[in-house]
Design brief:
α2 packs across α3 (about 45-55). This protein has 2 domains: about 1-140 and about 205-245, Vaccinia Virus protein VP39 (Rossmann fold, 3-Layer(aba) Sandwich); about 145-200, N-terminal domain of TfIIb, CATH 2.20.25.110. The chain is α/β, with parallel strands linked by helices. The protein contains 7 helices and 11 strands. The protein starts with a helix and ends with a strand.
Length: about 250
């Protein structure tokens, strides 16, 4: 994860402002009194920084020490000292108390590949949300796994680093393996090579919805991405806003 965390922001190319605005809009519409927000799988805290600057108190959780180290570097450079960083696995996370909103962006939930892990997350989120609290998250669609990622090769070349990302999706198991190879320029004409492998799992929207309802959540909003449009056959991401219903 060291190499991935080092180049995460430049490789992912996500529109963090758009994600943050989606969260802000959901809070304004469904729980305007929200103050304390938790980011599950925060990465380098790019979204959390925007939310914090928008007036929210932030707790950020990630299991990767390297990601949190990059997040700390970023926060220090920006002079932000109020964001709490916790190194925890999101399927076993613990908070000191309840919060108003928990969100998880950029297909973080798809990294829960073992049986029962996603349900554990819903249980924990339910436990640590205030009454009427919001759970905002996204998941990759099967279209993305099948048509975009499976068999695909993606190349990133910037700042003296070359990365090749290849993915293989197994339709029977719903497992997608990502293979990343980095070449980082050193002295002279030498490059250092790093190899990483990541695994994701496809979860259907129907399964996620049933799981959420089982643990007391009500679906408030579902969109085909952070633009807020409808879910279409070629949508690559499904975004959900849920709240505690009972």
């Amino acid at each position: 994860m060291e190499a991935f965390s080092k180049y995460y922001d430049s490789m992912v190319g996500a529109d963090y402002d758009k994600i943050a605005q989606y969260v802000f809009a959901a809070i304004k519409e469904y729980k305007p009194d929200s103050e304390l927000v938790c980011d599950l799988g925060c990465g380098t805290c790019s979204v959390a920084v925007i939310l914090e600057r928008g007036g929210l108190d932030m707790i950020c959780i990630d299991r990767s020490e390297d990601m949190l180290a990059k997040a700390r570097e970023k926060l220090d450079k920006l002079g932000i000292c109020d964001i709490l960083l916790l190194r925890q696995d999101m399927s076993e996370f613990e908070l000191y108390g309840t919060v108003d909103v928990i969100y998880s962006s950029l297909d973080t939930l798809n990294y829960l590949v073992n049986d029962g892990e996603l349900e554990k997350v819903f249980k924990l989120v339910r436990n640590y949300l205030n009454y009427g609290g919001l759970f905002i998250f996204d998941i990759n669609t099967e279209y993305k796994f099948r048509e975009i990622l499976d068999g695909g090769s993606f190349v990133y070349d910037s700042d003296g680093t070359f990365c090749c990302w290849q993915s293989d999706y197994d339709k029977k198991t719903g497992i997608c393996e990502h293979y990343l190879t980095y070449f980082e320029k050193g002295k002279g004409d030498f490059y250092r090579r790093f190899d990483e492998q990541q695994t994701q799992r496809f979860y259907s929207f129907d399964y996620v919805k049933k799981l959420a309802e089982k643990h007391g959540f009500k679906l408030l909003k579902v969109t085909g991405g952070y633009d807020g449009g409808d879910v279409l056959p070629d949508s690559e991401r499904i975004c959900c806003v849920m709240k505690i219903n009972k």
